[in-house]
Amino acid sequence: MGIGAMDSCGRCMKVSLIAINIIIFISGGVALGVGTWVWVSRSFSSTLMSNNMFIASVGVVLVSGAAMMLLSVLGCCGAAKEVKCMLLTYYILMFIIFVVALVGGILQFVFREKVHSTLDREMFAAIPYYGVKHEYTRAWDDTQTFLQCCGVRSHNDWNDNVPDSCCKEVYPGKRLDCKSSPNPTTMYTDGCLEKTVSFLRENAVSVGVTAIVTTIIMLLALIFSCALFVKIE
Predict the structure, then answer these.
(1) Considering the domain boundaries, does residue 13 fall inside one?
(2) Using H for helix, E for strand and C for coil, what is the string for the chain?
(3) Cα(33)–Cα(68) distance, rounded to whole angstroms?
(4) Which residues contact 36 (CB under 8 A, 6 or more apart)?
(5) Could you identify which of 119, 121, 148, 170 might form a hypothetical disulfide with 174, taking C-beta atoms 3.0 to 4.6 angstroms apart as the criterion?
(6) Total count of domains within the chain
(7) Does residue 53 fall inside a structural domain?
(8) Contact 75, 90 (CB under 8 A)
(9) R_g of the chain, CA atoms, integer Å
(10) Residue numbers of the domain that contains 27
(11) How far apart are CA 34 and CA 44, in angstroms?
């Protein structure tokens, strides 16, 4: 049935589905951008977390964002041309991405509640590997430099092996001497645990909210695509 033969309700569904898919394309881009930013920024502390829930859920949101952008094009074409086969394919694939994105968003909020207890244990377990394994040394140095902190709860966690990254930076590549005279003016005195937890929780909320909002928009797309499919003869 062509657009001229479709009733006003069908035409409204068609226009609405095209509009929603434009929004989905933009939302997918936002999800992809937020996911990429969090993926890059979390890298400094990822080695200190043996729990991969956060990293995996960010990856889920990244893949979902990219898939949404591609599917929105299919949805627009299916609605504009009124092709039932395209709409059915769009509905099935969008439903899969809907479930995946929803799970990714929920995992972010689950991680947000559990991060403190797991990270505390994992950060203490990572201290002995400083200076022994490159990935742990780099992770600690990046974490302490980025968050301006030292140790897990304080610089005392390092005993007599305080890293240079605990010393305050005057400018990139130049630090104060905090080993011979450790005090608040020369070294970071705050522990990294609370700062890392706060940082990761903020990121988890950003990714989680983005995922949940996009799933709500996808739900509308599923409803309109199903309704338009029925209207087309």
Answers:
(1) yes
(2) CCCCCCCHHHHHHHHHHHHHHHHHHHHHHHHHHHHHHHHHHCHHHHCCCCCCHHHHHHHHHHHHHHHHHHHHHHHHHHHHHCCHHHHHHHHHHHHHHHHHHHHHHHHHHHHHHHHHHHHHHHHHHHHHHCCCCHHHHHHHHHHHHHHCCCCCCCHHHHCCCCCHHHECEEECCEECCCCCCCCCCCECCCCHHHHHHHHHHHHHHHHHHHHHHHHHHHHHHHHHHHHHHHHCC
(3) 13
(4) 62
(5) 170
(6) 1
(7) yes
(8) yes
(9) 24
(10) 8-108
(11) 17
Q: Give the span between the Cα atoms of 132 and 186, in whole angstroms.
A: 26
pLDDT of residue 47: 62
In angstroms, the first-to-last Cα distance of the chain is: 5
Residue at 47 is within a domain: yes
CA 47, CA 112: separation in Å to the nearest integer? 18
Q: How confident is the model at residue 25 (pLDDT cuts 50, 70, 90)?
A: very high
What tens digit of pLDDT does each residue of 110-154 get? 777 777 777 888 888 889 989 898 888 888 988 888 889 999 998
User: CB 160: neighbour CB atoms within 10 A?
Assistant: 5
Separation of alpha carbons 224 and 220, rounded Å? 6
- pTM for this predicted structure: 0.69
**14 within a domain of the structure (yes/no):** yes
DSSP β-bridge partners for residue 175: 169
Q: Which residue has the tokens 């890293």?
A: 163
* Residue 147 contacts residue 198 (beta carbons within 8 Å): no
